[in-house]
Structure formats: structure tokens, C-alpha cells
Amino acid sequence: MFGFWKTWKALEARGIMGINRRNADYVLKYNKRSLYPIVDDKIITKERAIAAGIHVPEMYGVISTEKEIDKLDEIIAGRSDFVIKPAQGAGGDGILVVADRFEGRYRTVSGKIISHEEIEHQISSILTGLYSLGGHRDRALIEYRVVPDQIFKSISYEGVPDIRIIVLMGYPVMAMLRLPTRQSGGKANLHQGAIGVGVDLATGLTLRGTWLNNIITKHPDTTNAVDGVQLPNWDGFMKLAAGCYELCGLGYIGVDMVLDQEKGPLILELNARPGLNIQIANDCGLTLRTHAVEAHVEALAVAGVTQTPEERVKFAQEMFGHVPAVEG
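C-alpha cells predicted for Alpha-L-glutamate ligase-like protein:
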């Protein structure tokens, strides 16, 4: 028991945040329950983002009832690729990614050939709440299929890599790149076997990777190094993440984004209860950073000053960057 206590005190000294502290000091403190639907429902998130001029994957259509499944042909008419996902899904479950059409059927991103009837069945399952939070009735969202930037080709297996940035009161505090693997079935989900790679807030340079709770330097499928990769348009990602504070009103969120090869940074979804594995990928605790932001916000409040998303990004990059930014 003494050994456990000693270990925990050592982790606490490094600023490692546990789930109880996350829930009590951040989720409950900064996230009003009444605002949860904004982030728990991907359609509401997307509609608010579009209204705010924030870039998201284009929404082709929404199916809310069994009767509306008849609208599927109209929604995907003329489109060879698209994504169908539950509005209130979690962990990537229930998502169907169609990459092409083939002889009157559809080819998924993994190469599987499926029929129109199978797609309708998947939508019906989504509507019943099979994949939703709490098992409640849900809606199906049909949207643009993100095509990952070519920079990820050597360090990702199928699927779409994404970038998560933890944001406290509009200030980015930590970032992670999530890379799909064969083990994760092409999904960027750490619990299913994707890789988490820390990202330097100042430069967008990848740090080290964690896979199945082990520290790694190479992708298990491509064998290429996952560290030392410069993510393009990093300031764009940081500003998008910071701006989500005004978008949803929640003070402690995880912002999940992707880099499309044509459209650049896009927001996929927001999370009101972001996981803590990001600390392992960054070899750094969240608590010291969140305390620094809280102290900064309190000092600004006393002075009667507020900061723009751009100013908040600048503060975060100066305070929490691992690697000095190169001037130029």
C-alpha cells in the first residue's frame, strides 16, 4: 500500500491528471450539463460550426426516421464516396466509410463490397440507437469522406488519422496525433489499438508514440518512424481548436480534427470528457498546464482583459511548447 501511495505521489508531482481530478476539477467545474447536447450530437456540432464559419466535413444529409431511409438515393446521388455515422456515436462505432462504387454496389475503405440494402440496414441500426450514447434513438449523418493528407501515408494504416487538442477555457494545453493500425481496424481509436503520438504545441512536430500502453518509435504496420514528423498548417489546427470554446461554451473539451488533402484542417467532433492517454503520448502531465491556464485567466479577469483565439494560441505555444519555434 505504501508503494502505491509513493508511486501516486510521484505521478502527482509530475502533474499527471487522474480521472477523478479530471471529472471533479474540470469536467464538472467548466462544462455545464445543459450544453452537453452541443458536443454529444455530431449534427448539432456541425450545424453550429457551419454557422460560425468553422470548417467541417460537408454534410450531405440527415436521416432521422425509418421512413426517411427512402431519401438515401437522393442524398448520395452522383457521389462515389461518402461517410455514414451515428450522430450520437462514440469510439468510432457504427461508422460506414464508402470509398467507391462497383458494379451497382459499394466498396468500403477496407475493400469490402456491400449492397445498397446493407447500407440501409446499417442506417436502420443507427436509428434504433445501437451505437448511441445511452442506447437512445439516434439520427444518421451522411457526410463528405475525408481523404487524409499525403503526409500520413507512411505512418498510418488505412482509415483517417486525427488530431486531438485538449482545450481549457479556449487555451490549447496538450495535443496528440492518433494513427490507425491494422489492429485498430483502420480506426483512430486508442482503445482499439491505434497509436497515440504526442505533438509539440509550438511547432506541430510529432514527439513519441504510445501503442497498447507501450512506448514506440515506429508504426507497427508501416515500420516508419512516427516521431519527428512536421504536421502541416499547425497554426491552423491550433486556432480551430481555440475557437471551439466560443462555438460550444464548454470550458474543458477535446477537439478532434483531421487534415484533408484538399480542404486542409477540418473539425470532426468535440468531446466533453476527453481521455487522459494524451499524457502518456506527451510524457507530460496535464495538471501543471491546466493550473498555468487557470492562473493566467484569473490574472486577466482581475485586469478586465479578455484574449482572442489567436492570443490564446500564442500564450499556449509560448508556455507549453517542447521545441522552440523557428522564426521565419
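Residues 2-39+149-320 form a domain with the D-amino Acid Aminotransferase; Chain A, domain 1 fold (CATH 3.30.470.20).
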